[in-house]
Amino acid sequence: MSERFIAEHIKTLKPSGIRRFFDLAQSMEGVISLGVGEPDFTTPWSVIEASYHSLERGFTAYTPNAGLPQLRRSIAKFLSARFSVDYDSKDEIIVTVGASQAIDIAFRSILNPGDEVIVMEPSFVSYVPTITLAGGVPVIVDTHEHNQFKLSKDALEQAITKKTKAVLICSPNNPTGAVLDKEDLEGISDVIKAHDLLVISDEIYADLIYDEAYTSIASLEGMKERTLLVSGFSKAFAMTGWRLGYVCGPEGLISQMLKIHQYTIMSAPTMAQYGAIEALENGLGEVAYMKESYKQRRNYVVKALTRMGLSCHTPGGAFYVFPSVKSTGLTSAEFAERLLMEEKVAVVPGSVFGESGEGYIRCSYAASMKQLTEAMVRIEQFVNKLKAKA
Amino acid sequence: MTEKALEMLRLLEKNAAYSNALLADLLDISIDEVKNIRQTLEDQAVILGYQTLIDWTKVLNTELVTAMIEVKVTPTRGKGFDQVAERIYRFKEVKALYLMSGSYDLSITIEAQSMMEISRFVSDKLSPLDSVMSTVTHFILKKYKHDGVIFNQEEDQDPRMMVTP
Asked: Complex ipTM, two decimals?
C-alpha cells in the first residue's frame, strides 16, 4: 500500500498505550482483570426489555438528529432533579453515540487551528487525541496525589495563555477517582469566567459518587452559558455497549454541534434510545443498588492495598483506585507487566493516562467480590516478593 | 437502626458467608463494630439465622419434592387465622406459610422425599383439621429462581474485554 494514502496528522497520532497491554492480557489464561473500565453488572433487565419491546413494535427507523424528544425530556428532567441544572429539551441537548462522540463534536465545534485546551492529567486516554484531531493544542495540567488528584485553580491559572479556548474537566475522574467538590469548582469557575473560557465537563461518572452530594459545574452561578455538560448511560446504568451519551449546553453552541452530528452520525441508535428512556424513568433503583456495591468494594480495595503497603488515596467516585507503586522501585509499566506475568492480575499502568500517572497503577473495582478478594491476595504475594528481594 | 446496620443486613442477606473482617472493610468500620452490630441484630431477632441456598437437584439421590398448597380455612372466633396457621406451621415439613389475600387464605410451601409423602400430609394431617375447608396442591416441576438467586445459570462468563480505557 502506498504511504501517501495516509494523512500526515494521523501518521503522527500515537496508538493508545493501553493497547499493548490489552494484547498481552488477552493472550493469557486464568487472568483476573482489574483493568476494565466498565461496570461488571449487566444492564438492568427492564432497560433491555424496553429495548426489545421497541424492536417488536418496529421502531427501527432514524430518530430526529438530536434524539427522541421523549428521551431528551427525560434527560432534562433527570438533570434538573439530580443536579439542579435546567436544560431545554428542545434545543439544548443532543443525544450522542457515547459521551466520546459528544466530546469529539464539542472540540470540532469550538476549536480553530492552534486554539489551546487545558486538560487535567492523569486523565482518560481519549481527550488529548480528540483535541489534536480537531486541530487544537492540548495543554496539560498535572494533578497530584498529595492534592487528591484535584485540579487546583492556581495550576489552572498558570496554564492559561492568550490562545486558551477551553478547559476540560472530568469529575469523578478516570483513572484517579478524584472528585471536584463545590468549593473546588467555584475556584475553577472564577478563573474560567475571568478569562472568558468555555468548560467541557465530562460527568459520565457523576452518579457514582460515594461520600458527598455531586455538584455539576454547570449549576454554578454564571456557568451554564459557558459549559458543555457531557454525560451518558454507560457507567451508572451499566450500558457501555449501547453507546449512548448526551451533551447539554447553550442553544447557540448546541445548534452548531448538531450540524456535525447530523452530517456524520445522523442519529444515535434508536433501540438504545428507547432503552435509555426506561433507564431514566425506572432504572434509578438499580443505580442506587450498584452504587452501594461499588462503594463497599472501594472501601475494601483501598484498605487491602493500604495494608500491603501501596499508598492509596480514597477516591470519591467512579470505580477506580489509583495506588502508588513507587515504594516497589518499579515503574508503573514494569509493575503492571510483572504482576500480569507472575501473578496473572491485569491492572493498567498509570503512565498511559499521562506522564503524571507514572508511579501509579489503575485498579478497577468493577469486578465481583470473589475476583477482588483473589486479586488482592495475588497482588499482596507479588508485593511481598518484591519486598523480600529488596 | 443505623445506616451501617442496614447496609450490613443488605450485605448479609446476599451472602451470609461474609466474614466479620471482610464486612468491616466493606462497611469501612472496625471489626469490633461489626461484631457489636451483628450481636445486637441477633439479640433483637432481626437476624434469625444463616442458611445456605442449595441446589439439591445437583446432589444425587437427595432430590426433594416441593409443593405449594392453597388452603381455604374458617377463621377461629377471637383468634382469626393465627390459630389454624400455628397448627399448620408447626409441622416440620412445612417450609413456608403465608396468609394471602384473594381466593384462598393460606399458602403452604412443603418439602418432602416423595409425592406420596406430600399427599399423605394433605390427606392425613392438613385436611382433617377442623378449620380447613379445602385444599389445592400444586407440585413444583422446576425451580428457575429462588430467593433472588437464578438456578442453573451458565458458568459466570465475563463478556468484557480484559483491559479497556
From this structure: 0.89
